[in-house]
Amino acid sequence: MVLRFARMKPDGLHDRARHGVVFRQWHTRICWWVAGCYRLQPDMRHGKAARMFTPRAPNPGLAALLTLLAAALLAGTTLLAKALGTQALGPPLHALQVSHGRFLFAFLAIATMTALIRPRFNRPDLATHAKRSCFGWAGVTLMFAAAAFIPLSDATAISFLNPVFGMMLAIPLLGERVGPIRWCAAAIGLAGAAILMRPGSGAIAPGALLALGAAMCLGAELIFIKRLSGREGPWQILLINNAIGLSIATLAVIWVWAAPTPAQWAALAGIGLLMALAQACFVNAMARGDASYVAPFFYTALVFAALYDGVIFGVWPDWVSVTGAAVVLCGAGLLVWREGRRRAPVT
To answer: What's the longest Cα–Cα distance across the chain?
Structure first.
């Protein structure tokens, strides 16, 4: 290409026009090559629908709004899980059955959208998908179990430790180096979790231990999400993750299955649909804003969870919940701030 440009000699208007056409042709080819390397090219076969989830121009306001919506929807799933795990809608359902409903209806929703949008798929890394789905299913199941035993604000706050555990696991699994600020953030977050365990009450709440286990599993899931990010499209990742998760949940629920009431069926469907919408909103938010900007807005899920729990079940956070949640958010916020500075471009 360089040699071709070097032989150009502007010897007249016709030649300059011809050379301009050649330059525009090469410019178009280069742009499509770069887009192809990063999988940003639109699928021209399927029109506007296929370009729905391609990266967009930065829009911080819309990114924040989508993240707030995702947080509200995610808090709604834990509210419905608590209703299903208690006697609010009938005989309590096992957490394994609640997570099965989440994956079943989320898969149906995402599969329907995928069939309508028809995005491009490439060859998936099924081994990494399987590992990610196993930890994701375990984390969701433990989180739903915790929601039935402790206030939603406590369970949500403890679950926010998943990036801390993800950071710790990234050291042996991804070979990442962790500096003093990130270790300090991890210590602060774990101190907040210790407060929420309420050790002074004589016995640690089982629900808090379940929420801590959920955070560990979801932190391990982050490791495999990192390996998949940039290599596969968001719709492909969501579809495969929910398909594998549904397979695991179906095998697990066989031993505890109980016939749900109509209200419980509606709640199970609601969990799946809300989770699918939350994932779609968060993916769109990440396409319109930096992760370090988007992540803090997601912590409003704690506010939504406390509000739902107070209005529906009459359970409002006490001073221990507020203190522990504040400490956890400080640690998580420090980690997000550090990650944003570490990845910021040098100017």
So the answer is: 91
Give the ranges where the chain is alpha helix by DSSP (H): 2-6, 13-37, 47-50, 60-85, 95-117, 126-147, 152-159, 162-174, 180-196, 206-228, 234-253, 262-288, 291-298, 301-308, 319-343
Enclosing H/E stretch for 164: helix 162-174
Contact (CB, 8 A) for 206 and 259: no
Alpha helices in 229-288, H assignment, sequence order: 234-253, 262-288
pLDDT tens-digit profile of 89-103?
A: 989 999 999 999 999
Domain residue ranges in the chain: 2-37, 57-343
Identity of residue 324? G
* Position 244, amino acid: I
Beta bridge partners of 232: 229
Distance of CA 330 to the CA centre of its chain: 20
Distance CA 257, CA 269 (A): 16
User: Residue 317 in 3-state DSSP?
Assistant: coil
Q: Which amino acid is at 255?
A: W
Q: Give how far the C-alpha of residue 180 lies from the chain's centroid of Cα atoms, to the nearest Å.
A: 26
At residue 183 the predicted structure's pLDDT band, cuts being 50, 70 and 90, is confident
CA distance 34 to 32: 5
Residues in Cβ contact with 56 at an 8 Å cutoff, skipping those fewer than 6 apart: 287, 288
Burial 307-344, CB ≥16 within 10 A → b, else e? bbbeeeeebebeebbeebbebbbebbbbbbebbeeeee
Is pTM beyond 0.85? Reply is: no
